[in-house]
Amino acid sequence: MKVYIYTLKDPETNEIRYVGKSNENRIEKRLIEHCQEKRLNHNRHKDNWIRCLLRKKLKPVLEVIEESNTDNWSDREKYWITYYKKIGCSLTNTNEGGEGQPYRKSTQEHKEAVKKQISNTLKEYFSNKENRSICRKGGVASRGKKRPPRSHSGKASSSFVGVRKNGKKWISYININHKQLGLGSYRLEEEAAEAYDKAAIYLFGQGTTINFPVKLQKYLTTDIAAWFKTIFDNRVNKKYSSKYKYVSQVKDSRSLKEKIVWIAKDVADNYLGRFDSELAAANKVSVITGIPLFELEQLKIKR
After folding, report:
1. What is the percent of the chain where pLDDT is above 70?
2. pTM of the model
3. 3-class SS of residue 61
4. What is the side-by-side order of every strand in the sheet holding 169-176?
5. Which of 32, 20, 28 lies closest to 59, judged by CA?
6. Which contiguous run of DSSP H or E holds residue 273?
7. Phi and psi for 195 in degrees, rounded to 5?
8. Is the pLDDT of residue 85 over 80?
9. How much is the average pLDDT of 258-284?
């Protein structure tokens, strides 16, 4: 049976990172097997490298370098591993080839060496007074600075500060005295980021860091104070009352636009539907409960 010696190359640098062998009937599936999630659950150099590529939506490049047989493939694999290491390739192979080993545990000496190296690195870092000051203050992140995307599940959502995704819309918000103030929902992520920029400039001044520094002059030419007052008023009056009992007005969360709908409920607070007008919702309540419209209005006034 034919046995192939192959290499895995980095698609970004075209550098050879791994040397392996495969039987004739498995060479076409070998790359797929290397990238399978169930095979990447070890903390090995090769697995970590492939996981890093997969996160970038890339895959290694498989290239056959020699065709051998079942009698001498072990020697040939050892030869190629030694050769590529000798010419300076940073291979992820954990042994010199041959039969191979699925996983090699670190020795106690190796663990002690790694621990000592980390300790020396930390000592060198904290010997700098500026670094110690940064750590005491809780890091160097500043208001408006880009950060890794984050969603409600803790994973990717938006790369802008003050922006998160909610369904099909982007929500803009800003923190004031440890309290979060909503700045509205937008169809585009950039619009939500601009809303944060305007609020940050209005609240903290021009010196604050914003998502789009190149648009600073554009922000300053607009009436930010009036814009922020409108946003704040809409936030406070998120839910509106009706002149009829058992009828309320809310923003339609299922619409991409800022559409207002009327909600009707009965005496037992059971949901009766959503309507485009206040009168239609009141008529629905009147039909279900048997209370005339003028009495619904009077009940609201007495409340």
Report:
1. 80
2. 0.35
3. strand
4. 163-166, 169-176, 179-186
5. 32
6. strand 271-275
7. -65, -40
8. yes
9. 82
